[in-house]
């Protein structure tokens, strides 16, 4: 069955890039509603933006969705990852500013509140998007691939010159709450040398040592160090799940990211949906539903470090 949140879940915090304090509420929604963001501070025009790949406006540092009236919400990837990882298919996300709150830089605060509030079943079957043939996209920085798979699986590889990150690879089957146990507490990260450059162009204005992992060469500058030795690649996988959730329904496929980011994952979805015989939408039986991300997950599975 499709799901929504049991009751409204509220958050307040600064946006990572704007530095603005925003209030956000994840509200219950009916079956087949999907995930939709609503700008409550916009009084004229259409303030609702569907969380779908075809509403994404490319940005190298975050995922931003924009509707035809120009209403937008940015840095939605952690919220989307939390909803997908908790198995929530329908929600109205009401927000009074242009960027989702970053909180601790991971998806764990969203996951904790969603699971504490509870997930409610709706009287409608889940429909999934099954990948039938492999699609692949490239940029000068990296590449991403999506191919057939029995569930949602992911391989990711990153390579940074800073020794505190270096080369990292990880493979996961995201069934049955793996996201909550393995990925949700991994924080966004950046190099100390990039911080001033980002701020010079109006980005990372809300970034601190408390909501991002900052590295400099072989040093981790953020207090407390890393939550995982491979926290960086885990966070990249967290972002990828959030961006893949913009497909509009759970995906059945195998995702591979090599030095990939938000733009590449969105390009990949656009390539998939531009390939008519590359996918099919099918009903989800009970056995398949039990293998989807978030199926049966409990709040106690959130890592204690978060």
Count of DSSP helices? 7
* Low-pLDDT sequence parts: none
**Beta content:** 25-35%
The secondary-structure class comes to alpha+beta
Relative helix content: 10-25%
Average pLDDT, rounded to a whole number, is 93
CATH architectural arrangement: 2-Layer Sandwich
Report the C-alpha radius of gyration, rounded: 18 Å
What count of domains describes the coordinates? Answer: 1
Instruction: Please provide the ordered H/E string of secondary-structure elements.
Output: EEEEEEEEHEHEEEEEEHEHEEHEHEH
CATH topology: lpxc deacetylase, domain 1
**Ends: how far apart?**
30 Å
Secondary structure blueprint with pairings:
Elements: E1 3-5, E2 9-14, E3 21-27, E4 35-39, E5 48-50, E6 56-57, E7 64-66, E8 72-74, H1 77-85, E9 91-95, H2 108-117, E10 119-121, E11 127-131, E12 135-138, E13 143-147, E14 152-159, E15 167-173, H3 178-183, E16 189-191, H4 192-200, E17 213-216, E18 219-220, H5 231-244, E19 251-258, H6 262-273, E20 279-283, H7 286-289
Parallel strand pairs: 4-9, 11-19, 14-19, 16-17
Antiparallel strand pairs: 1-10, 2-3, 3-9, 4-5, 6-7, 7-8, 11-20, 12-13, 13-19, 14-15, 17-18
Write structural notes for this entry.
The chain is of the alpha+beta class and 306 residues long. The chain has one domain (3-301): lpxc deacetylase, domain 1. The protein is built from 7 helices and 20 strands. The chain has helices at residues 77-85, 108-117, 178-183, 192-200, 231-244, 262-273, 286-289, and strands at 3-5, 9-14, 21-27, 35-39, 48-50, 56-57, 64-66, 72-74, 91-95, 119-121, 127-131, 135-138, 143-147, 152-159, 167-173, 189-191, 213-216, 219-220, 251-258, 279-283. The strands form 5 sheets. Strands 11, 12, 13, 14, 15, 19 and 20 form a 7-stranded mixed beta sheet that branches. It has a 5-stranded mixed beta sheet with strand order 2-3-9-4-5. It has a 3-stranded antiparallel beta sheet with strand order 6-7-8, with no helix packed on it.
């Amino acid at each position: 069955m499709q799901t929504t949140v049991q009751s409204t879940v509220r958050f307040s915090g600064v946006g990572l890039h704007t530095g603005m304090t925003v209030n956000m509420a994840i509200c219950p929604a009916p079956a087949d509603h999907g995930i939709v963001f609503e700008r409550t501070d916009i009084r004229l025009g259409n303030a609702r933006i569907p969380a779908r790949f075809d509403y994404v406006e490319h940005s190298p540092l975050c995922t931003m969705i924009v509707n035809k009236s120009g209403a937008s919400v940015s840095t939605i990837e952690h919220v989307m990852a939390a909803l997908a990882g908790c198995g929530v298919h329908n929600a109205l996300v009401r927000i009074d500013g242009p960027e989702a709150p970053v909180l601790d830089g991971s998806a764990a605060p969203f996951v904790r509140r969603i699971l504490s509030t509870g997930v409610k079943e709706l009287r409608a079957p889940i429909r999934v998007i099954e990948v039938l043939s492999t699609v692949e996209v490239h940029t000068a920085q990296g590449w991403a691939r999506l191919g057939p798979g029995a569930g949602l699986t992911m391989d990711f590889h990153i390579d940074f010159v800073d020794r505190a990150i270096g080369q990292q690879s990880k493979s996961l089957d995201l069934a049955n709450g793996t996201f909550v146990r393995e990925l949700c507490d991994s924080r966004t990260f950046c190099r100390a040398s990039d911080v001033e450059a980002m701020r010079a162009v109006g980005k990372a204005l809300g970034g601190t040592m408390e909501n991002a992992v900052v590295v400099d060469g072989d040093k981790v500058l953020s207090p407390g160090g890393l939550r995982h030795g491979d926290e960086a690649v885990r966070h990249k996988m967290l972002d990828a799940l959030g961006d893949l959730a913009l497909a509009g329904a759970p995906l059945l496929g195998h995702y591979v990211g090599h030095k990939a980011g938000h733009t590449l994952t969105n390009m990949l979805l656009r390539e998939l949906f531009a390939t008519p015989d590359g996918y099919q939408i099918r009903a989800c039986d009970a056995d398949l539903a039990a293998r989807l991300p978030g199926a049966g997950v409990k709040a106690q599975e959130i890592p204690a470090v978060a």
